[in-house]
Design the sequence.
């Protein structure tokens, strides 16, 4: 993914994080507000149901007792018994006795008017006939009538809702099949009816409600919607700041990750993961014959947009961060991929691979090389290893690596020779195969600068130490002639070729070989 891609994804992720955190917390506030309110209303409903059972129970006990009375109907003893019950039972307002559907006497007197027994609204499981709302003989207040085997008790409906509630909370006590027994604070009975037919808890447009059932009774509790909105506010006060914090954390994490990803180091790390590196090959020429003897592998970073990043722009960062190790590995793999077959067909040709200071220090690269070359048909002789002075600081480690490399059959060259402070001392102390004279010395050939005097000395010294010499950065024929005259074996530079993609490089070598063959008759 490129920079813009990362920025777009990060922005989208931040947006999603912000929306989902805040949305999630708002939703949580809402469900919690509902749950808390529902629980509160349920406890009211249960309380009301418990209270409502009392008059029901009282009536049942009284009616069964009266059924078993021995007193003659409407005798003084019978009326007295009914009166005692009326006085002593809190929930019972009056008791009456019916014969053939007509009221004969009440707890006060024998009936003077002809009062016909009302048709019951429903009958309970134990056979008690209940009339929801009926007018008693004396007081005008509608009562709940309960009739069993000739006797009828009257109960003040308020007894069924004998609890103290906030004025905005409405309650209806009904039978389980929906006959209202009593209400408190005037609930909408049509809504109560709908709720009784429906599910346990419902949110309407205007009110929030619960329905609780217990045996033959049900309680419907309603409260205005505003109440739950207040509760929502309370919950939001807790959860929305938490959501905000969560969103900020998420966004912070997204920014942190994308900044890391977008930092030069992040980009390099990602490039390694995505294997965005390619290798170009700069031909190395045998100066005497003009033949191509191999190439130096030079890494390039090809970005997803196709642009090529030069190694001097990322190798220092890679060395500093340790990412150079996986890059070296990838270069080795690429060389084998690009030129494996070609190298096995041309066993006299070689490829030089640049090692970093860390590669030299740890020597790890040698095992990697050995493993990767296994079964490729490429011989170790065909691999040259180039190391700069920076890799020789830890002399002991460098020595061990170089010894091991040479024992394995690899060639080892000191790169950029002459540019460091102690090139000379390394040359004496380390067992090397070749020396690459830095381009800055080659540049001085034919000029009268001070360092132009140094170049022949480097060449002589290398010869004394029996090292092969590779001259880097040859740009002119004059430089090439000079080096040839001094019997420098190998050269590389723009005079011959810049670093080329693998196919072009192989083509270059083939053309060179053909040209050399024609130039050397016989
Ligand atoms: P180096 O090892 O000294 O590589 C030679 C550099 O000089 C290359 O630059 C090459 O393109 C350039 N060069 C060759 N001939 C001429 C010439 O005639 N004129 C001029 N002006 N330049 C010439 P490049 O490819 O940009 O590499 C730069 C440096 O990056 C290399 O210097 C090397 O230190 C490092 N490097 C490249 N590939 C790798 C690698 O695979 N691993 C490691 N560790 N370092 C690498
Ligand atoms: Ca080099
Ligand atoms: Ca060099």
Sequence:
């Amino acid at each position: 993914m490129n920079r813009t891609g990362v920025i777009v994804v990060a922005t989208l992720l931040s947006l999603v994080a912000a929306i989902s955190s805040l949305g999630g917390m708002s939703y949580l506030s809402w469900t919690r507000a509902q749950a808390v309110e529902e629980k509160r209303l349920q406890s009211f409903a249960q309380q009301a149901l418990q209270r409502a059972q009392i008059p029901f129970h009282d009536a049942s006990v009284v009616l069964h007792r009266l059924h078993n009375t021995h007193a003659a109907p409407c005798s003084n003893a019978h009326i007295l018994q009914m009166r005692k019950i009326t006085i002593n039972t809190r929930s019972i307002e009056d008791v009456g006795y019916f014969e053939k559907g007509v009221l004969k006497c009440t707890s006060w007197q024998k009936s003077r008017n002809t009062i016909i027994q009302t048709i019951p609204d429903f009958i309970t499981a134990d056979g008690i006939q209940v009339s929801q709302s009926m007018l008693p003989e004396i007081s005008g207040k509608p009562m709940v009538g309960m009739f069993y085997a000739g006797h009828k008790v009257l109960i003040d409906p308020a007894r069924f809702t004998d609890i103290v509630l906030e004025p905005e909370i409405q309650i209806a006590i009904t039978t389980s099949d929906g006959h209202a027994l009593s209400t408190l604070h005037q609930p909408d009975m049509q809504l109560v009816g709908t709720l009784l037919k429906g599910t346990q808890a419902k949110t309407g447009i205007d009110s929030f409600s619960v329905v609780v059932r217990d045996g033959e009774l049900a309680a419907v509790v309603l409260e205005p919607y505003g109440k739950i909105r207040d509760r929502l506010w309370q919950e939001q006060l807790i959860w929305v700041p938490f959501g905000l914090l969560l969103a900020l954390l998420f966004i912070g994490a997204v920014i942190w990750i994308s900044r890391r990803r977008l930092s030069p180091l992040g980009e390099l790390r990602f490039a390694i993961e995505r294997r965005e590196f390619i290798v170009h090959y700069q031909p190395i020429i045998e100066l005497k014959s003009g033949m191509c003897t191999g190439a130096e592998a030079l890494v390039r970073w090809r970005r997803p947009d196709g642009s090529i990043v030069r190694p001097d722009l990322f190798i220092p960062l890679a060395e500093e961060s340790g990412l150079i190790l996986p890059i070296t590995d990838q270069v080795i793999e690429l060389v084998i991929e690009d030129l494996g077959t070609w190298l096995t067909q041309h066993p006299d040709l070689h490829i030089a691979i640049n090692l970093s200071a860390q590669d030299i220090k740890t020597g790890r690269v040698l095992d990697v090389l050995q493993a990767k070359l296994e079964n490729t048909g490429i011989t170790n002789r065909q691999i040259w290893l180039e190391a700069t002075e920076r890799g020789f600081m830890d002399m002991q480690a460098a020595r061990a690596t170089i010894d091991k490399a040479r024992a394995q059959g690899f060639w080892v060259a000191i790169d950029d020779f002459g540019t460091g402070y102690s090139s000379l001392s390394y040359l004496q102390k380390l067992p090397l195969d070749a020396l690459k004279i830095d381009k800055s010395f080659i540049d001085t050939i034919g000029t009268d600068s001070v360092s132009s005097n140094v170049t022949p000395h480097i060449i002589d010294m290398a010869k004394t130490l029996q090292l092969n010499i590779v001259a880097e950065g040859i740009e002119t024929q004059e430089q090439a002639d000079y080096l040839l005259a001094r019997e420098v074996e190998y050269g590389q530079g723009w005079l011959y070729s810049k670093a080329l993609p693998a196919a072009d490089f192989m083509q270059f070598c083939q053309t060179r070989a053909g040209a050399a063959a024609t130039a050397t008759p016989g």
Summary: The first strand starts at residue 92 and ends at 99. The chain has two domains: 26-240, 268-512. The radius of gyration is 51 Å.
